[in-house]
Amino acid sequence: MLYAKTTPEQKRLKLRELLASGTIQQFPGAFNPLSARLIDEKGFAGVYISGAVLANDLGLPDIGLTTLTEVATRAGQIARMTDLPCIVDADTGFGEPMNVARTVQELENAGLAGCHIEDQFNPKRCGHLDGKNVVDLDTATKRIRAAADARRDPNFLIMARTDIRAVEGLQAAKDRAKALVEAGADAIFPEAMKDLEEFQAIRDAVDVPILANMTEFGKSDLFTVDQLQAVGVNMVIYPVTLLRSAMGAAERTLDSIKADGTQEAQVGSMLTRARLYDLVDYEAYNRFDTGVFNFRIPGTD
Ligand SMILES: C[C@](O)(C(=O)O)[C@H](CC(=O)O)C(=O)O
């Protein structure tokens, strides 16, 4: 049983190394702990935990309705089931700068490797929708200063997300990115970039790692990892991709059951029982019962 043998401190160090490597790193979004294990098994660099997914999973829109407790709890459940570093979407930080400080400490306690905090007003909106608003520079930089100051592990990654591009344009995004780095951001998430040239412009404006959000049905085209690497992006997330895929499959199966009176037509595309057992390492638990105590039950450390 090999899951979650890596400590949060080791994961944070690993994340720092990955971002310094000069090679772009892919972080698919997990929609539950089990999908994080799949991401891990497939050899990705890390796991992204999307605010939209956490909200949608509860049947809610992604407009800042989830609480710090809900986000930290679920993100912690995901993080402890994988040896990969996990980055979580902390929205606007859940309040004033003092709340942002507590948010960071709670996310550290939950075993995350880092988080991003954005400069939208609450209630926030998906970064790829119209009608967003951003806070002024002073408020935005205070959030980041509070976050950077609050962490106890210096390797916990504080990423500043700015949504200003869609509101005030590219020059404003470059200016804000620079100011957020000065305030202590370790990385920048420029939201809703229109094209590769815009990513390049942010790359040229700051000397910290930058992230690209390849969310479907949004404002950015779905660039390949090579295209993003070529313009100096360090990390790419696919935040809602697995939830959309899984829910798409669930809908097709339900339609089959309704139409055919059986799920038979969909069985071929399902994860088999054996594969599912493999993902939860069923065999390791059987071995435990025979006296081979060579694993820790995930989540009990
Ligand atoms: C990155 C994001 O904030 C998220 O919650 O994952 C969303 C993703 C989405 O709604 O597709 C975003 O604002 O881009």
Automatic annotation (TrEMBL):
<dbReference type="InterPro" id="IPR012695">
    <property type="entry name" value="PrpB"/>
</dbReference>
<dbReference type="InterPro" id="IPR039556">
    <property type="entry name" value="ICL/PEPM"/>
</dbReference>
<dbReference type="GO" id="GO:0046421">
    <property type="term" value="F:methylisocitrate lyase activity"/>
</dbReference>
<dbReference type="GO" id="GO:0019629">
    <property type="term" value="P:propionate catabolic process, 2-methylcitrate cycle"/>
</dbReference>
<dbReference type="Pfam" id="PF13714">
    <property type="entry name" value="PEP_mutase"/>
</dbReference>
<comment type="function">
    <text>Involved in the methylcitric acid cycle. Catalyzes the cleavage of 2-methylisocitrate to yield pyruvate and succinate.</text>
</comment>
<dbReference type="InterPro" id="IPR040442">
    <property type="entry name" value="Pyrv_kinase-like_dom_sf"/>
</dbReference>
<comment type="pathway">
    <text>Organic acid metabolism; propanoate degradation.</text>
</comment>
<comment type="similarity">
    <text>Belongs to the isocitrate lyase/PEP mutase superfamily. Methylisocitrate lyase family.</text>
</comment>
<dbReference type="InterPro" id="IPR015813">
    <property type="entry name" value="Pyrv/PenolPyrv_kinase-like_dom"/>
</dbReference>
<keyword id="KW-0460">Magnesium</keyword>
<keyword id="KW-0479">Metal-binding</keyword>
<protein>
    <recommendedName>
        <fullName>Methylisocitrate lyase</fullName>
        <ecNumber>4.1.3.30</ecNumber>
    </recommendedName>
</protein>
<comment type="function">
    <text>Catalyzes the thermodynamically favored C-C bond cleavage of (2R,3S)-2-methylisocitrate to yield pyruvate and succinate.</text>
</comment>
<dbReference type="InterPro" id="IPR018523">
    <property type="entry name" value="Isocitrate_lyase_ph_CS"/>
</dbReference>
<keyword id="KW-0456">Lyase</keyword>
<dbReference type="GO" id="GO:0046872">
    <property type="term" value="F:metal ion binding"/>
</dbReference>
